Amino acid sequence: MQELVKVLAKALVENPDAVEVESVEEDGRTVLKLHVAPDDMGRVIGKQGRIAKAIRTIVKSAATRTNQKFTVDID
Q1: In angstroms, what CA-CA distances link 48 with 10, 26, 52, 54?
Q2: Are the C-beta atoms of residues 74 and 41 closer than 8 Å to each other?
Q3: Torsion of CA 49, 9, 75, 54, to 10 degrees
Q4: Distance of CA 27 to CAs 15, 21, 36, 73, Å?
Q5: Which positions ≥6 away from 3 have C-beta within 8 Å?
Q6: Would you say 74 and 45 are in contact if contact means Cβ atoms under 8 Å apart?
Q7: What pLDDT is recorded for position 52?
Q8: What is the DSSP code (8-state) at residue 19?
Q9: Helix, strand or coil for residue 49?
Q10: Which is it for strands 29-35 and 70-74: parallel, antiparallel or unpaired?
Q11: Among 2, 6, 8, 75, which has the minimal tally of Cβ within 10 Å of its Cβ?
Q12: What integer pLDDT is reported at residue 27 of this predicted model?
């Protein structure tokens, strides 16, 4: 799942080398923390959070196939 988020983020940003995804277990779910360069933050979040919401929807859809729970946090 980390690779999925990383590939999606790298396709959106201008500085793909700065993209990092960290996985942390919290309360029975896995939190994927996405770190991007400060200049690329707006590209990943999008207008009114639409791109961030789309990334979360894709991850949620992929997670249901494996019966896992994932949350995506963007830092």
Answers
A1: 20, 27, 9, 12
A2: yes
A3: 30
A4: 33, 19, 25, 15
A5: none
A6: yes
A7: 96
A8: -
A9: helix
A10: parallel
A11: 75
A12: 86
Find where tokens 């923390």 sit: 33
pLDDT tens digits for 5-61? 999 999 999 999 999 999 999 888 999 999 999 999 999 999 999 999 999 999 999
Residue type, 5: V
- Tell me, what's the pLDDT at 28? 85
In degrees rounded to 5, what are phi and psi of residue 14? Answer: -85, -25
Report CA dihedral (35, 39, 43, 48) to the nearest 10 degrees.
90
In the block, residue with structure tokens 């933050």: 41
